[in-house]
Amino acid sequence: MENKALPKALQDAIEHIAKLPGYGERSAQRFIENLLKLPKADSIGTIKALLEMVDKIHPCKICGLLTEEEICSICSDETRNRQVIAVVEESFDAYAIEKTGKFKGLYHVLHGRLSPLEGITPDKLNIDSLLTRVEEEKPTEIILATNPTVEGEATATYLYKVLKDKYPELEISRLAYGLPFGATLENADTFTLSQAIEHKVKL
Ligand SMILES: [Zn+2]
């Protein structure tokens, strides 16, 4: 990007944001335009919150859920049902399920979904640690709660095969009921998501 009219500080900021997966130069520009329109104290507050978040938040050592602690509040909650693990793409999907209040098991966050076109192969996802957990924690049920999208379905199909091959006894189910294809858990309304959990389908 060669543009003499563009101040260097602006160009640097745009380049950083545009590097984020899913963001291009256009969304980076829009973010910066909106940030700069805020009163200076607010835009600085936004950046400070981001800085603090990046500094404090990291994946839980066990399940991958974003947390400020070493082990997240769900993994360390003795009252949760340790027999059931819901596998989600991102932490925000788990937060959406938590909001329904219908699920009392544990989570496992993949940090993405299979997408061979984008070079996201199984080794790029948090799958090895899921297999280790199944081996060590011996849950009786895995709920594949990836999104009802092409990539989410491909991810669920892959995990089903890997898990069933190794653990034929393991019960594996899938969220299906009521979620429109192409939707994401994060954006589904709480009622629909509650229904999807209550009417999960055994695979
Ligand atoms: Zn955890």
Reconstruct the topology from this structure:
Layout: H1 8-18, H2 25-37, H3 40-56, E1 58-59, E2 66-67, E3 84-88, H4 91-100, E4 106-109, H5 128-137, E5 141-144, H6 150-166, E6 171-174, H7 190-198, E7 201-202
Parallel strand pairs: 3-4, 3-5, 5-6
Antiparallel strand pairs: 1-2, 6-7
Bound molecules: zinc ion
- How many β-strand stretches? 7
Q: What low-confidence regions span 5 or more consecutive residues with pLDDT below 50? A: none
Proportion of β residues? 5-15%
Count up the domains: 2
CATH top level of the largest domain? Answer: Alpha Beta
Assembly type: single chain
- H/E series: HHHEEEHEHEHEHE
Distance between the termini: 50 Å
Rg measurement, Å: 20 Å
CATH architectural group of the largest domain: 3-Layer(aba) Sandwich
Question: Outline, from the CA principal axes?
Answer: elongated
The number of distinct helices, counting runs of at least 4 residues, comes to 7
Helix content: 40-55%
Q: Give the biggest beta sheet.
A: 5 strands, mixed
Structural class designation: alpha/beta
Q: Strand order, main sheet: write it out.
A: 4-3-5-6-7
Mean model confidence by pLDDT: 91
- CATH topology tier name of the largest domain: Dna Topoisomerase Vi A Subunit, Chain: A, domain 2
